[in-house]
Structures are given as C-alpha cells and as structure tokens.
Amino acid sequence: MQVGLRQVALxxxxxxxxxxxxxxxxxxxxxxxPFSGPFAIFGTQFRNAMDVWIAQHGxxxxxxxxxxxxxxxxxxxxxxxxxLTQELLIKDRVNYxxxxxxxxxxxxxxxxxxxxxxxxxxxxxxxxIINAKSPYFMRTSMTQTQVSAPLADWAYANGxxxxxxxxxxxxxxxxxxxxxxxxxxxxxxxxxDTIRMPIKxxxxxxxxxxxxxxxxxxxxxFIPAGPPAFAFVKxxxxxxxxxxxxxxxxTGDLDDETSLQGLGAASVGVITSHPYSAAHPSAMNCDFIAxxxxxxxGAVANFASVGAYDxxxxxxxxxxxxxxxxxxxxxxxxxxxxxxxxxxxxLDPRTRTVTQNMYIREIAKAPDGTLENKEIETIKAVPDxxxxxx
Length: 390
Ligand code: PHB
Prior knowledge:
By secondary structure, the chain is of the alpha/beta class. It has helices at about 1-20, 40-55, 80-90, 105-115, 145-155, 170-185, 205-215, 230-240, 260-265, 285-295, 305-320, 325-335; strands spanning about 25-35, 60, 65-70, 95-100, 120, 135-140, 160-170, 190-195, 220, 245-250, 270-275, 335-340, 345, 355-365, 370-380. Strands 7, 8, 9, 10, 11, 12, 13, 14 and 15 form a 9-stranded mixed β-sheet that branches. Strands 2-3-1-4-5-6 form a 6-stranded mixed β-sheet, with helices on both faces. Strand 12 and strand 13 form a beta hairpin. Helix 2 (about 40-55) packs across helix 10 (about 285-295), helix 3 packs parallel to helix 4 (about 105-115) and helix 5 (about 145-155) runs parallel beside helix 6 (about 170-185). The structure holds P-hydroxybenzoic acid (PHB). P-hydroxybenzoic acid binds near residues 127 and 224.
C-alpha cells in the first residue's frame, strides 16, 4: 500500500515535469475539514477566516500563486480523512496540507504525511499526541492540556475544592481530563468523580444526575464544539445543578461564539478557558472581526477562525521561504513568533504547537444584550503541556 503510494506519486511527478512549466508557479494546498453534517460550521469558519487572510494578503506569495483544494471529511471519520488526504497527495499533488478538525482524522493521516514529507498545518485537532506522530505536523489551534491546566488553577484560586469531571470519551476529552485533574490535585483540590461520555451522546441527563449526587463545588467538562453544547448546558440547568450552586467550568469548546447566543441566559456565569474570545480587546482582533463582517455579513469569529487565520500565516510563511520545498518552508516557520487576533504566538520547536495566552472567560451579557465570552484573566505564553517528554 505504502509502496503503491510512492510509485503513483513518482509517476505523477514525472508527468508534471514532462508537461512543462505551465503550472510551475502554482503551489497547491489541500484543506480537509467538515463542510457537511453536524460539524459543517467548522468548514464555514475556516473558509471565512481564509477569506479574511486572502483579502489582507492576496493569493500569491513570492511569485507563487496559491491554490486551495477543499475536501469534506464530515465529522470524526478517520477512514474518510485518510482517503481524501491520499487523493490530495496522489491525484492533486498538493504541496501542503491543512485543516483537520477531529483528532482521529489527524491521527489517521500521520503515516501519509510522514511518507510524503508534506508539511501539514492542523487548524483544530487538539490532542497533544498528534504532533508526536509525524514530524511534518504543526498546529495553530491549541491542545486540551494547554487549555485545562490554567482553568484548574483558576478554579482552586477561586475557592473551588471539589470537582466532578465529565468529558467526551476520546483523545481531546481524555487530555482535558488529565490536564485539569493533574493540576487541580497538585494545588490540593479533590476530584470526586470521573465521567467519560460516549462521543455520540445527545442526552446528558443521566450524567448530570450523577454529578448532582456527587455534590461537588464544580463540574469540569470538555465536549467538542458544535450542536451538543446546547443540550449539555440545558441538561446542566434542567437537572438542577445550577440551582444547587454547582459551578460549571469547561474548555471554551462548549461556548464558542457560533453556539454562544443559543446557550441562552442560563449560561451566564459559566467559566471557560480558551485561546480566543471574539471579545478580545485588541486592535488586531477588531480589524479581523470588521473584515470578517465586511466579507461575510452576520458571520461571527471563534477559535476555529483564528486556527485557520494563523494557519494561513504559517502556510504563507513556508511558501515564501521555501516555495514547494516543504523542508525549507518548515525550517523558516518553526520557532517563529507573530501577532494574532488572539494575542502573541510562537510555534514551539519542541511541540510544533503554538505557545499562546490562555484566557479565563465568563459568559456575560454585553451592553447590547447579547452574550459574550468576557476575558477575566490572562495566563501568558502557555506551551502545550501534554507533549510526550521523549
Ligand atoms: C478534536 O477532535 O481534537 C477536537 C474536536 C472539536 C473540538 C476540540 C477538539 O472542539
């Protein structure tokens, strides 16, 4: 199978070489993301943010025209992601890869990326181990350990002493549980229950009942961003946890800006941790949001938007330095620092994930009556804390 891939790639390369210089200036980037199904919002957010980047920086870099080829992976479908990536590498002969929302999808393409030596910029998938699976992976989103440890510090500093955890039972959920639990226990806090919820769960009632019985000071949670967030927050309120004074502290996947208004007034006071809030008060973020609104009226910015926007930064920088020489491109960007709408970023040479500020946010009513992720604390320059030591 792997030899087959190399052979096909080789003969396709020969064909291109023989066909002359017509396409020599076009650098191709394959983008794999959900563009249909329940998680299609990720694809929309990616494309909108790419449009902002392109409006600001153009579609050619150092004399190369950049062509993007989109492939729809749907949700967590490793087999589909693998087939689509194979297609991009062999048929479309892309020079770079980007996107990848779900951890199982990113893990599934690691061998292809390594074998073809294709620099691949992950715009979302957030389990630490992914980047250890291929030296060609870079990540402009976050990892769940990076997000959760600062939240545990905040919880302890704010009087929370007992916590029940409830996370979606796959890579990022398990990392989030580990990141929060390790830090919270180190501070002196107590984990009173550890719940892992199947990825397809839509009825969170039974888990909420269990947590209610645990009577903790707070419930910590990770669920992937998207429609389940509404059901989760509703179950938290409907089952009386909010009424009992059990605080909800979660990763910001729960209340990203594409879901936020739909969470309703019951969500006011929920505390989340994440690398980006649309309410981040910087000039660069204001410009980003203004350009997004100009190009796509009614669109909102969320963490996926900046994952893609900064992903474009990494791609353009690689193309500028290396053209179609991916190794040269990666050399130029790994270790680089730049300013993002979310704050300062550095692509950490050890983990190849961005080191970035984490923001503790409170869901609050903005002056215009809408809900916002109000930043209440900034933890500066947090690296990926979950990357394996060796
Ligand atoms: C992941 O699968 O890594 C993932 C998906 C959605 C999120 C965060 C992480 O919101």
